[in-house]
Amino acid sequence: MIKRPLIASRRCLPKAVDWTVRIASLLLAAPLSKNIRRADVRVADRDPGYVAGKGFSSVHYVHRALIVFTVLAVAAFQPAAGQSFIIKNLGALPGGNYSNALGINERDQVVGYSIAASGNTYATLFENGVVTNLGALPGGNFSSAAAVNNRAQVVGGSSTARGNDHAFLFEHGVMTDLGTLPGGNSSSAAAVNERGQVVGNSSDLRGYVHAALFENGVVTDLGTLPGGNESGALGINNRGQVVGYSSTASGNAHAFLYEHGVMTDLGTLSGVGLSHAQAINDRGQVVGVSSTANGFVHAFLYENGVMTDLGTLPGRSNSSAFGINNRGQIVGESDIGNNSYSPHAFLFEHGMMTDLGTLPGDNFSEAVGITERGQIAGNSTSSAILWTREK
Q1: Would you list the DSSP string of 4-47?
Q2: Is residue 11 part of a domain?
Q3: What is the pLDDT at residue 83?
Q4: Domain boundaries, position 116
Q5: Contact in structure between 230 and 205 (CB atoms under 8 Å)
């Protein structure tokens, strides 16, 4: 099992795929790194998994034109524990046996990535039983989709001909390179709102990585918290409020909220340690993960200046929240907190955290996003999945 990288989906990936993710300078502790999502930050020139001239994998380039595959969906359904949910396996690209979901919109379009028959990993759209390969930027051999809005605009990261990762926007069958901050060579997109504003991160002229806004062909540096030198944006709502993480003067990463040109430190549950904000809804409610006074990490909800500990599933020590809708329903994962790392997805609503279960025979699941109708996208061991509440 590959240990969860920093700022990445905590999926158990095949060893053939190196998903080492860097924000090493944030000095995140190992327990926290397991509970932070997004396969969206891989800055090539400082990624320990990067090989100069070869990028992040040895797989071959596939033409970036849209390739649509219709797959026979695996008939794997299982009621979620304690809830009236059905779990559906969304499948994978033909010839591949691995897929991962990272985002969902109100049209139930799910995006993420899948391993193809060639061994290449590509940004993927799952919709109505069809698995679509979104390809890669010209000359690239890897891509991953992180989010999709209701206009079907997909954002994420792709390797390029030079071997660096760049943020992309995919719409109308075309993948567009969103570029980098001036002087930077790598970038990645993590979220997009209905206005088409995209956030993520980019390296700069000095080699640092900063949270970035990509809009109308311009890449804007969102800066860092006071005393920090690196940051990353993970979420944006339709009001343009941005959340993410930034290093601080203490060397620890803290969750931030960025609005009106000002980045605000959201603090931590214990008053010390680490935190990351991972999503924000249109009401300004923020969710993420924070270290606690007892050394574990817990999912949090931040609203009206207060960070609230959401606790864990029964018998478990760690948790992390990855998504929240405008109804205040929160999804994420909760883990035992030992080296086995076998988290279960949860839904938090009405003050209660509910185990959503896994596909039959699996011991791992995570929920990454939830729609206003309560459709939940996530993953179970090696498959992208969708939880649907039974009527």
Answers
A1: PPTTS------TTS------GGG---HHHHTT---S----GGG-
A2: no
A3: 55
A4: 24-389
A5: no
